[in-house]
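Duplicate of #3305? Posting structure anyway:
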């Protein structure tokens, strides 16, 4: 999922993939609410919020890789 030299990169540092901060930045860049992201990924708002919570917090949940890839695909299809 490297950045294309011709196209726009979704993430400033794509080699880092999913992090709570990357997820939040992407969601905000595309003006998607946490609620809408939860709907797009067939999950609930609580889970979506936990994916964006700092890994240092007890309430953090790691976003499954398949959901990360699905979200990136959804964003790419919006362009």
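Output from current build:
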């Amino acid at each position: 999922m490297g950045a294309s030299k011709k196209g726009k990169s979704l993430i400033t540092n794509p080699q880092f993939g999913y992090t709570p901060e990357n997820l939040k930045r992407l969601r905000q860049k595309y003006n998607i609410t946490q609620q809408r992201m939860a709907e797009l990924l067939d999950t609930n708002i609580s889970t979506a919020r936990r994916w964006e919570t700092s890994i240092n917090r007890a309430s953090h949940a790691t976003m499954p890789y398949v959901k990360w890839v699905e979200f990136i695909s959804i964003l790419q299809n919006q362009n």
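Confirmed duplicate; merging threads. DSSP finds four helices and no strands in the chain. Residues 35 and 45 are 5 Å apart (CA to CA).
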